[in-house]
Write a structure and sequence with these properties.
The protein contains five helices and 20 strands. It is α+β, with helices and mostly antiparallel strands. It folds into two domains: 34 residues; 236 residues, Beta-galactosidase, Chain A, domain 5 (Distorted Sandwich), CATH 2.70.98. The strands form three sheets. The chain has a ten-stranded antiparallel beta sheet. The longest helix has 32 residues. The chain starts with a helix and ends in a 10-residue tail after the last helix.
Length: 292
């Protein structure tokens, strides 16, 4: 290598390093701006309190971001419900959009579905609800009304379908193999990985509530934290292990709702720093009367 090249070599290295650094800054800026609900944009807007949930509705949808002070660089997404109704032509669920969120006070929101009367009547459903966050708990209610002239049937199209708690924005709870996703079988916890043992691996799993309690649980990778979703009355619990969403569901049981009748499903999301052995004793499935 000539003396000229030897002199230029460090400059080339420095220049290349500056280019890589510039790309890193741009990508950081792009990804932070691409998610309007990023923790970086949220935490400066609230007074920080330890061991607390914070709520931030996602515009126009039934999704609400749940931030927790123990995980300052991530958040959870709760859909209440995930689907407003089932499209009979495609058989697929129609996501709940056109949601009006109303802030009652800090960490207390009500919501209503502002679809047209025609859409509500054509699909036989109207719904509304409420969420309140306090410390390590989010208590919620979802109320649905049959606005059709037919009785809702388990064999007919579904309504206000799936209460979905997604962990895809919180790497601590992503669990593609179901080893840290649990359900309550009788008097003990059973992981999805154990429940699937000897069966073909699946990414989406649903279980009717026969011997199970209406609770879905995930454990953090460091084993320190447990995240739970409960609701009553419920008919199934289910999980989607795809890393992008990594969610768990409790599906409301609306029963044979008659025309004009209404019904409420109550539930809660809780986070515990405890052990698996002590977890069940700390959980109260039915929300207390004074929690909402």
């Amino acid at each position: 290598m000539s003396w000229k090249n030897k002199k230029l070599f460090p400059l080339i290295i420095i220049g290349f390093g500056l280019i890589l650094f510039s790309f890193w800054l741009l990508s950081k800026k792009f990804f932070s701006e691409s998610d309007p609900y990023s923790p970086e944009s949220f935490w400066p807007t609230v007074t920080f309190e330890a061991n607390s949930f914070y709520l931030r509705p996602m515009s126009d949808s039934s999704n609400i971001a749940l931030y927790h002070s123990a995980f300052p660089s991530s958040y959870f997404t709760f859909s209440i419900p995930e689907y407003a109704y089932q499209n009979l032509e495609t058989g697929k669920g129609v996501r709940a959009e056109g949601i009006q969120w109303n802030r009652v006070k800090k960490n207390h929101y009500t919501f209503s579905w502002e679809a047209s009367d025609e859409e509500k009547e054509d699909n036989g459903i109207d719904f509304w609800g409420e969420l309140v966050a306090s410390s390590n708990r989010v208590v919620f209610s979802l109320r649905a009304k049959n606005v059709s002239d037919q009785v809702w049937s388990v064999k007919g199209p579904y309504h206000a379908h799936l209460l979905c708690l997604a962990c895809g924005k919180n790497p601590a709870f992503i669990d593609p193999n179901g080893e840290r996703a649990f359900m309550r079988e009788g008097n003990q916890w059973e992981s999805l990985a154990h429940k699937q043992k000897g069966q073909p691996a699946r990414r989406s799993l649903a279980y009717p509530l026969i011997n199970q309690k209406p609770v879905a649980v995930k454990q953090s990778k460091d084993d320190d934290w447990f995240l739970s979703l409960t609701a009553t009355p419920a008919q199934t619990i289910s999980y989607c292990l795809v890393e992008r969403v990594s969610c768990m569901h409790v599906n409301p049981d609306w029963g044979l709702l008659k025309p004009g009748e209404e019904k409420t499903v109550n539930g809660k999301i809780e986070i515990f720093k405890t052990s698996m052995r002590k977890l069940w004793d700390q959980m109260i499935i039915e929300p207390r009367a004074n929690e909402m």
